[in-house]
Amino acid sequence: MLSELNRMLEKNLFRESSNEELFNPYSTRSEGLDRADAISIRRDNLRKYVTERRKKPEVLLLAEAPGPWGCRFSGVPITSEEQLLDPDFPISGRQSSLEENPHKEYSATIYWGILLPWHEHIFTWNTVPMHPHYQGKPLTIRTPRASEIKRFLPLVSEMVEILKPRAVVAVGRKAEKALGMIDVEATYVRHPSQGGATLFREGVLQILKELNLIT
């Protein structure tokens, strides 16, 4: 199942082109920001996240889109380079950026700080798996457009079909709307950033309790 998911992502995402306001970290390298082999690094980081699990994830957690300091460089949703390089972190990976110190992301720190003990129960993905930014400003973040969300609905739908999760969690209203568009029942929770960490934690842990994944 996980190898099937990996093949699906390779087929449906790795060949997608970037444009002036949407950056695909799995097909594009930015001069001055990325290492020469950044594309292969991010693809490999994602492959490890997908396949190096001891059990099938039972919860699909769908967020909005990669931010400029997390998945944009790590290739792993809501995860930073700094975390992948930590030997105690459950996912191994490499740094794709040219920075002397690996990038660190606030949302990723909150997310993993809350869900680390139960991470193998959860597969996290982004509604729009490419980084939305403003034209000429590659390290900014903007809200994904409706057209961009619709573009990747088939990928989200196929992911649900492959994983067959017991529960789907929509992190934020964009994810909730996207899942509604493909008739996937989901539970809404607040995004962990911008003061939403407590509500995010309470919402996700309640779902895990209802599934008897934690006590």
Q: What does the largest sheet look like? A: 4 strands, parallel
Alpha carbon gyration radius: 16 Å
Order of helices and strands: HEHEHHHEEHHEHEH
Q: In whole angstroms, how far apart are the ends?
A: 27 Å
Structure description:
The protein is α/β, with parallel strands linked by helices and about 220 residues long. It has a domain at about 1-55 and about 65-120 and about 125-165. Helix content is about 40%, strand content about 10%. It has helices at about 1-10, 40-50, 70-75, 80-85, 105-115, 145-150, 155-165, 175-180, 195-210; strands at about 20-25, 60-65, 120-125, 130, 165-170, 185-190. The strands form 2 sheets. Strands 3-2-5-6 form a 4-stranded parallel beta sheet. The protein has a two-stranded antiparallel ribbon with strand order 1-4. Helix 1 runs antiparallel to helix 2 and helix 1 (about 1-10) packs antiparallel against helix 7 (about 155-165). The longest helix is centred in the N-terminal third of the chain and has 14 residues, at about 40-50. It is globular and about 45 Å long. The mean pLDDT is about 95.
Salient structural properties:
215 residues; four-stranded parallel beta sheet; globular; two-stranded antiparallel ribbon
Helices and strands in order, then pairings?
Elements: H1 2-12, E1 22-23, H2 38-51, E2 59-63, H3 71-74, H4 81-84, H5 106-115, E3 122-126, E4 131-132, H6 146-151, H7 153-163, E5 167-171, H8 173-181, E6 187-189, H9 197-210
Parallel strand pairs: 2-3, 2-5, 5-6
Antiparallel strand pairs: 1-4
